[in-house]
Every structure is written in C-alpha cells, then in structure tokens.
Design goal:
Blueprint: H1 2-18, H2 26-43, H3 47-54, H4 63-76, E1 79-80, E2 83-84, H5 86-97, H6 99-109, H7 117-129
Antiparallel strand pairs: 1-2
Helix pairs in contact: 2-4, 4-7, 5-6
Amino acid sequence: MNSYIVIALSALFVALAVASPIELNEEQKALAKQHGEQCAAELNLTEEEKAKVKAKDFKNPTENIKCFANCFFEKVGTLKDGELQEAVVLEKLGAFIGEEKTKAALEKCRSIKGENKCETAVKLHECFETFKPAPEVKA
C-alpha cells in the first residue's frame, strides 16, 4: 500500500511540474478574486483604481493602489507587516516559475524597501514581475 501511495504522489508531482508555469487553478483564481475584493472594499478603492488593479496597471499608483498590493500580499501570506515572507514566496511562486528562478528573484528582491509597507509591496511586485515567464506567442 505504501509503495502505491509513493508512486501516485510521484506521478502527481511530475504532472504538476509539467503543467503550464503561470496557470492558476480554479480554486486559486477564486481565492485571488476573494482577496482582491476584500482589499478593494477595505481600502474603498475608487472605480478608476479598481480598473487599474484589474488591468494590472501599477504605473504611477495612488496610495490606495499601493496599499491594495500590501493588503493582497498579506492575505496571500507573502508579506507580513511589510516584511517579505521568503518561505511562503518560495512555496507559492516556486510552484509557478520553479525553485531556482524563485531563489534568484528572492536574491534580487529581498532587500527592497519603500517608505512604508504599502510602497514596499508595490516595489516588491515590480521586482518579482521581472521574473515572470514571457507569454507564449501563438502562431
């Protein structure tokens, strides 16, 4: 029985490793949406700010958008009181871009700090975005 479980788990890990690197499953999408809606409500984002967040437009962010990033990352667990939670980042981001690329991202981004935790969140987001895989070009 134990060897059957090991084989089944091995097959699962191989399947996960081969899966598209940045695809969220339905449960992850629902949780991300829930966190986003909670943070938008907590911060009273304007419709314009909500539209910018939805479009992933973090250029020239308002203070509310910066704090939205902090709120979201705190709910996900990657930030706590403005401090990067490296083990959580390694676990969550590593599942998408791989452990080595995540370690390289942490090496580059871990020392980034803003004037406050909201600004730190946006700066960290910008840094980690540079490690995202390029979108596939479809012929």
